[in-house]
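INPUT
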Amino acid sequence: MSTTSRSPVDQSQGAKGAAVTRHPLRVAILGFGTVGASVARILVERPELAGRLELTHIFNRDVARKRAAWVPASVQWTEDISEVLASKPDVVVEVIGGVDPVGGWVRRALEQGAAVVTANKMLLAAQGPALLHLAATRGTQIRFEAAVGGGVPLIHGVREGLAGDVLTRVAGILNGTSNYVLSRMARSDEDMAPVLDDARTLGYAEADPSADIDGDDAGAKLVVLAGIAFRRHLQLSDIPRRSIRQISAADFRYARKLGCTIRQIAMVEAQGTGFHAFVGPALVPTQSSFGRNEGANNVVTIVGKYGGESSFSGAGAGGPATAVAVVSDLLALAGQPRAGDVGEEWLPAIVAPAPARPYYLRFVVQDAPGILASIATSLAGQGINLDAVLQEPGFAKEALPFVITVEACEEAALQAALREIGEADFHAELPLALPMLWTDES
Amino acid sequence: MSTTSRSPVDQSQGAKGAAVTRHPLRVAILGFGTVGASVARILVERPELAGRLELTHIFNRDVARKRAAWVPASVQWTEDISEVLASKPDVVVEVIGGVDPVGGWVRRALEQGAAVVTANKMLLAAQGPALLHLAATRGTQIRFEAAVGGGVPLIHGVREGLAGDVLTRVAGILNGTSNYVLSRMARSDEDMAPVLDDARTLGYAEADPSADIDGDDAGAKLVVLAGIAFRRHLQLSDIPRRSIRQISAADFRYARKLGCTIRQIAMVEAQGTGFHAFVGPALVPTQSSFGRNEGANNVVTIVGKYGGESSFSGAGAGGPATAVAVVSDLLALAGQPRAGDVGEEWLPAIVAPAPARPYYLRFVVQDAPGILASIATSLAGQGINLDAVLQEPGFAKEALPFVITVEACEEAALQAALREIGEADFHAELPLALPMLWTDES
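OUTPUT
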């Protein structure tokens, strides 16, 4: 096996971020499932990355059935791992999962000096310290933003953004399947069996969901988070994991009585010189960030001695979100200038008009007949459609506030209508217009 | 003025993170207010930083009244900026604020090759591109994790963790004072004037809160976020800012009718080749992350083409939280090994027992007299105090679920009690014990 000492990864990405590599990093993807395909798609769809990252190989078992027409013809498809490694890739992206045989392939890649980007929390939980050590001795890196929290940039946020703090606790909802099951039970008062059946049908749970609901998946992610937050390796076997299988509809009734709901929580906290960790169902306040986290989303809170609590949330899984984390790691390897690095530039921005939005219009008037008709006419004159008219009781006639909501419209048209409306003599106060944000998504 | 080309900042922090600087970075702090004092305190209190960061100077006007006994005697206190710069600091931490005269001092520091870490969003909004360019030409850096979102690691998270995505929208609650005022109005149905008076008394608002409630503070932070997310410089004058002063108690009544509440939102979105930004009050769904954000907390959501929505929240201001961001930047300059970098190591963790916690105990029993007494006796035998007993109606007598919550206790004691309780013959199912997390904080 070659142990070449050439160092394709930019050695100057820190303080000299502007000095990018001379040639694009040659990237081989191991595994063309949802994540691997999404990584390839981002590399293909973002032409501005071409100078820095070049996809050269895609490895998959039974690769013939995987070939996708949108992948450039220059990419080699193979089911032979030795062919991939013999091509001397600069970076191996490992998105297959599992400890064997993948761990051996990752070691071979690191041994020949390739960088590795992986989403494989099970491998990191089992062999993280050894792989980090091997990478160090070969002068290369293993990066794993994608291993925890899918597209939530936890590793960068915790490891670098909170480096100035002394962290004391990391806790999160790290498994989307369990959270989907528990948050649906909380709403529907169903028992677990029918919810789990539905989750399988809808693709939120695998045929055998044991790793998700018994806590092994969240446990492996917690090992990675503990490594990042505390630089300590907790063995997965040191983390008590309790299944959510015992949770019944009755438990949600009682939890509600206590102002709580039930979630699968993964948590590690510093205790003196040691660390205590666990994964399993727990009561959390309904109004906490855990209690409010619904569906397959992930949320992680970090507590530090100085900074208090910070929270991160987002899509915990899914091909595109996880692929973003992989590509972020690839760009870090390629010497992407970092925030504030030498070479960071802010070019002048072109100012665009506001997109069409629904608006909330509040008027305070001296009440009289015909006011609503007058306002509606001015809005119609600009092609703006009314959505609702609201008038609450209990206000004085001489300063009566009422509200009109309008469908999405251009801000310029709205301003023109409001100028016309403002000329009337029935106003007790100037009209107020507020954009309504995301009401269609809530 | 010296334009020395020596490069004290570790040039190899990226791929060769293990190769830290040979001498600690000499750090001068400009401004000894709440943030500056908190930065100094972290540097003093974390002895493990001593090899990498050495506090040498503290600059403040009228410095005599600022001297603190806990600062090491080796630190020079001065009110002469030229004395600070003549000492050739490796890093200047600027936490004074304002554009003049501070901008000139920052330029002088960069010109002589010092790195600058700043929390000054107004300076960055006004002169960000020029300062980034100056830093680049001098082979140094200007870093500003502390300028937006206090202790929330937004800059690292957005700029690096989401580098793999194509970002389309950044929106957030960036001003704690406005959010305190609006979230309190939403709860109390008060008008703004008395709430603002209270906010001043409680220290949540300055004597003149114009910059906060009229949107200049959030606007400057939005300029910085747009630079990070899009690498484009929006002029503050290109961002329409509307005050929250017009919002009345009546508006919250109407917003509630629409399933919404009102928050000061700062938002920038890509529109074709341009960008639209605004700061001002907006209706947001009560159940959205914006609508649920209370008090002085900050929350930011980032939308990407591939990864969907990610969200970051935490303390937006305050000395210690902002100081964490400053120290994180200092460590990045000092060559703190990054996640996955060469030199990253996870040492074996010592496993500690769980801290004492309150627990939820659920029993399913064949109902009979004396069960509760029997369970209570076993718990008392381990010194565990009952908190509440809950029994909901509507369950069958032969499989009756009821709940006992207990005050914080050691897990080992609880397990011993549950073993004893489990020996009784009244159980229809095994007892379930769940930790109750943070119920005292909610």
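end of record. The domain at 154-315 of chain B is CATH 3.30.360.10 (Dihydrodipicolinate Reductase; domain 2).
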